[in-house]
Design goal:
5 domains, 14 strands, Rossmann fold, 12% strand, Helix Hairpins, seven-stranded mixed beta sheet, Helicase, Ruva Protein, domain 3
C-alpha cells in the first residue's frame, strides 16, 4: 500500500508561531513527544498504532523546521497556499494537541515504508523509548544497577545524568518494569510546573486527592498515605524526568518532601533524571542542602564504537531483522562518528539510511548510503578521529622538533670529540669520572613522590591494624581486613577502571594464563576476556551460597558509600566463612565484611571446552553433543541406559536430577549454568574451584 500523505502546516503541528526560534521548536517537540509517549503507554495496541502515525508526522515537522533549507522551502509552500485560500493561513492561532489529528485521507502503511522490503516486524529505529529495545551496554548496566541498589537500600535521593538522547528515559522505563508490586510510583515527565502543581501531580499519580490548592493539605494527605504504605511494607518512589528544567523552588519543595520520615527511615525516595545541566543547577548556593542529600549519583555516557555496533544489531534483532539488513563495518563506524555514540542520533541516522537503501533497492547499508543519510538530515558534524588529530596537531610538532634538533645538532651542540687545540677529550673525562649509581637518590629529583598504594593509604590514615590469619586460608603475603570501613578505604584509592583491570588479572592468573597474558588487560578488561582469552562471562545476581554452588571464582561488584562509586573485586577462594579476594593486593576477610558493600552482582568467567550449542541442548535436539552429555552424566551417576544422539525424555530427566542435586534451576535444559557445573565436576577439564575439595 502506498503512503498518500497530504502536506501539513508544520507550525500548527508543533503548536508554535511561524517566527519561532530553534529553542522554541525543541521545547514544543519535546513537550508533544512526552505527551504522546505517556498516552501511548496506557492505551491499547490499536490506539498506540494510531499514535505512531502522529509521532511520525511530529518527527517530520521537527526535522523540517530544524533544517534551515527545508524550513525556507516550507515557508514558501505556506505562502503559496495563502494566496489560494485563507483556510490554511499559517498566521492563525497555533493548533492545540486535539486540533491536529491524523486526517482520514492520510493512509499510513502499518510500520513504515521500508518495513516489508526488509522483512521487519516493526520500525527498529523509532524515537519513542520502547523498553523492549533496551540495549544494556556496560554503561547502562551500571546505571540500572545503581538505581536498583539505591531503591533497595532506601537511599533518599538518587541522581542520574546524561546527555540528550543517551537513553535516560529508556533506562527509567525499564527500571519501572523491574520493580515489584510492593512499590507505588509517581512518574513526573513535565518539569514545567510550580511547587503546588508538583504536589498535585504526585498525589494524582499515587491515586490520592489532588484538587486542593493548599500545599499543607496536599502534604498532609501524602504523609498519611506514606505511613499507611510503610505499615504494609510498601515503598513510594517519585521519579522526575528532565529534572534540569525544574525551578529552584520546585527542587526545594522536593527536599522538603524528603523530610517525610519516621524515627528510623525515609518514607519516600526521589530519583532525579536529567541532563548534565542538572549538576550546575544543584551546584548553586540555594540548593546546597538538596545536593548534600543525594547519596547515589551516576552519569550515563554515550556509547563507544563496539557498543554502537551492538546497539544497532540489537534493535534490528528485536524487529526480526537479523540477517536481513547488511550493515558494513565502515558504515557502522560512520554512523558512530556522526552520532557521537548518542542512541537517539544513531536511531535518526540508521532510520534514514534504511529509507535510502529502500529507495535504491539494496539491503546493503554502506558508507555511501550513510553519508547520504547524514546529508539529508543536515547539521551533523563528525567526531575527529585520532588519525586526523595526528596530522592536524602532532605532525607539525614533530616537524618543529626535527627542525630544532637539526639546528642544535649542526650549530649549537658541542663536539664531543677530542679538541685538538685544548687537548680536551670529553668522552675520556666522562669515563674517568663516572656517576656513582650506588648512592641513593643521586639521579632522582627531590620533588618526585611515588603514588601511594592502597596499603600506604591505610597506613597513613592509621587505620591498618596487624591482624594474623586465623587459619591456613591466606598465604603469608595476604592483607587481612576485618571491617567494612577498612575495605572502603582500600578500594577508594582505585578508580573504577583500575579495579576492573586488577580483578581481571586475578581471574587470568587463576585460569593459568602467564604474565604476558595479563599485559593484554586494559580498561575494557571485563569485556575483553572473552575475545582475548576465550573466557565467557556469566552475569548473575545472588548471594555467596549461589556462588559456592557454581564453585567458580568470580568478580564481585562493590558499591562504596557516600557516592564514592563502584569498584570490582575478584573472589578467588572461600573456606568456611572467610574468603580470599584479589585487587592490587591479595586480600583475606570474613565474608560478612564485604557483604554490606556487595551489590549482589557477580560475573563468573568460564570456558566452554567443547564449544557446545548456546541454547539448543534441550529436549528434541539431535547431535553428537547429546552422546557426550549422556556419557558424562553417566560418570557422575545421573544417566542410565543406552546412549543415543537424540535429547529425549530420559536425557531430560537425567539433566533435571543433575540440576536439582547442584541447586540450580531444574528445567531439564542443558544451558550455561548446567554446562559450567558439569565441566567443573569432571576431572578431565582444568577448571578453577572456588572451594577446593
Amino acid at each position: 500500500m502506498i503512503i498518500e500523505v497530504q502536506q501539513r502546516n508544520y507550525y500548527q503541528v508543533l503548536g508554535i508561531q511561524k517566527d519561532a526560534s530553534q529553542n522554541e521548536i525543541d521545547l514544543a517537540y519535546k513537550r508533544l513527544i512526552h505527551r504522546f509517549d505517556s498516552a501511548g503507554t496506557r492505551q491499547s495496541s490499536t490506539i498506540q498504532t494510531s499514535l505512531k502515525g502522529k509521532i511520525a508526522l511530529l518527527q517530520e515537522a521537527y526535522d523540517t523546521l530544524s533544517n534551515k533549507e527545508k524550513r525556507d522551502e516550507h515557508d514558501r509552500w505556506i505562502e503559496q497556499q495563502t494566496k489560494h485560500t485563507k483556510a490554511n493561513a499559517p498566521n492563525s492561532h497555533p493548533a492545540s494537541l486535539k486540533e491536529w489529528e491524523t486526517p482520514a485521507d492520510i493512509k499510513y502503511k502499518p510500520g513504515n515504508i521500508y518495513q516489508d522490503y526488509f522483512g521487519l516486524s516493526e520500525k527498529p529505529f523509532d524515537l519513542t523509548p520502547d523498553p523492549k529495545y533496551l540495549y544494556l551496554s556496560p554503561k547502562h548496566k551500571e546505571v540500572l544497577a545503581h538505581l536498583v541498589y539505591g531503591i533497595q537500600e532506601n537511599n533518599g535521593f538518587l541522581k542520574i545524568v546524561g546527555e540528550v538522547g543517551t537513553g535516560k528515559t529508556m533506562i527509567c522505563r525499564s527500571f519501572l518494569r523491574e520493580l515489584h508490586a510492593d512499590f507505588s510510583i509517581a512518574y513526573i515527565f513535565n518539569p514545567g510546573i510550580d511547587e503546588l502543581e508538583l504536589l498535585q501531580t504526585i498525589n494524582a499519580d499515587l491515586g490520592l486527592p489532588s484538587e486542593s490548592t493548599s500545599k499543607k493539605k496536599l502534604m498532609d494527605v501524602l504523609n498519611k498515605f506514606l505511613l499507611e504504605e510503610r505499615k504494609k511494607g510498601h515503598r513510594v518512589v517519585v521519579i522526575i524526568d528532565e529534572a534540569q528544567d525544574l525551578l529552584p523552588s520546585v527542587l526545594e519543595q522536593l527536599r522538603l518532601l524528603s523530610n517525610l520520615e519516621t524515627e528510623t527511615e525515609k518514607l519516600i525516595q526521589i530519583v532525579l533524571i536529567g541532563q548534565p545541566e542538572l549538576d550546575k543547577v544543584l551546584g548553586t548556593e540555594e540548593l546546597r542542602q538538596l545536593k548534600q542529600r543525594i547519596t547515589i549519583q551516576w552519569e550515563l555516557l554515550p556509547l563507544n564504537l563496539d557498543e554502537t555496533r551492538g546497539y544497532i544489531q540489537h534493535r534490528l534483532n528485536v524487529a526480526l531483522g537479523k540477517g536481513k539488513v547488511e550493515l558494513t563495518r565502515s558504515g557502522t563506524e560512520l554512523i558512530f562518528r556522526y552520532s557521537k555514540g548518542i542512541p537517539r542520533m544513531i536511531n535518526v541516522i540508521a532510520d534514514r539510511a534504511l529509507l535510502i537503501a529502500y529507495t535504491q533497492n539494496t539491503k546493503n547499508i554502506n558508507v555511501r548510503i550513510v553519508r547520504r543519510a547524514v546529508k539529508d538530515i543536515g547539521g551533523l558534524k563528525p567526531t575527529v578521529s585520532w588519525v586526523e588529530l595526528f596530522w592536524k596537531f602532532v605532525s607539525p610538532v614533530i616537524a618543529l622538533i626535527g627542525l630544532i634538533f637539526f639546528i642544535l645538532h649542526d650549530f649549537a651542540l658541542p663536539d664531543l670529540k677530542a679538541d685538538p687545540k685544548n687537548d680536551t677529550n670529553i668522552p675520556k673525562i666522562i669515563q674517568e669520572n663516572p656517576v656513582d649509581l650506588s648512592v641513593p637518590g643521586q639521579l632522582v629529583p627531590k620533588e618526585f613522590v611515588p603514588k601511594p598504594s592502597p596499603i600506604d593509604k591505610l597506613d597513613a590514615m592509621g587505620k591498618m591494624e596487624a591482624v594474623l590469619p586465623p587459619d591456613n586460608l591466606a598465604s603469608s603475603d595476604a592483607l587481612v581486613l576485618t571491617q567494612p570501613d577498612k575495605l572502603v578505604t582500600y578500594l577508594s584509592s582505585l578508580s573504577l577502571e583500575e579495579s576492573k583491570v586488577e580483578a581481571a588479572k586475578w581471574i587470568l592468573e587463576i585460569w593459568g594464563f602467564d604474565q604476558s597474558g595479563a599485559e593484554k588487560v586494559d580498561v575494557d578488561a571485563l569485556e575483553n576476556l572473552e575475545v582475548e582469552f576465550e573466557l565467557s562471562p556469566h552475569e548473575l545476581n545472588g548471594n555467596f551460597k549461589r556462588l559456592t554452588n557454581l564453585n567458580y571464582p568470580a568478580i564481585l561488584e562493590v558499591a562504596l558509600p557516600n557516592s564514592m562509586g563502584t569498584k570490582y573485586l575478584a573472589l578467588t577462594s572461600v573456606k568456611g566463612d572467610r574468603g580470599v579476594f584479589g585487587s592490587v593486593d591479595k586480600l583475606e576477610m570474613p565474608l560478612e565484611t564485604i557483604n554490606p558493600l556487595w551489590t549482589r552482582k557477580a560475573i563468573i568467567f568460564w570456558k566452554d571446552f567443547e564449544s557446545l550449542p548456546i541454547d539448543k541442548l534441550e529436549k528434541g535436539y539431535e547431535g553428537k553433543e547429546v552422546i557426550w552429555l549422556q556419557k558424562n552424566l553417566r560418570l557422575l551417576g545421573f544417566f542410565m541406559g543406552r546412549e543415543a544422539s537424540t535429547y529425549g525424555v530420559k536425557t531430560e530427566k537425567s539433566v533435571r536430577k543433575f540440576q536439582r542435586k547442584n541447586n540450580i534451576k531444574d528445567d531439564g535444559k542443558f544451558y550455561t549454568e548446567s554446562k559450567m557445573l558439569l565441566y567443573n565436576l569432571l576431572d578431565i577439564y582444568p577448571t578453577p574451584k572456588l572451594i577446593e575439595p
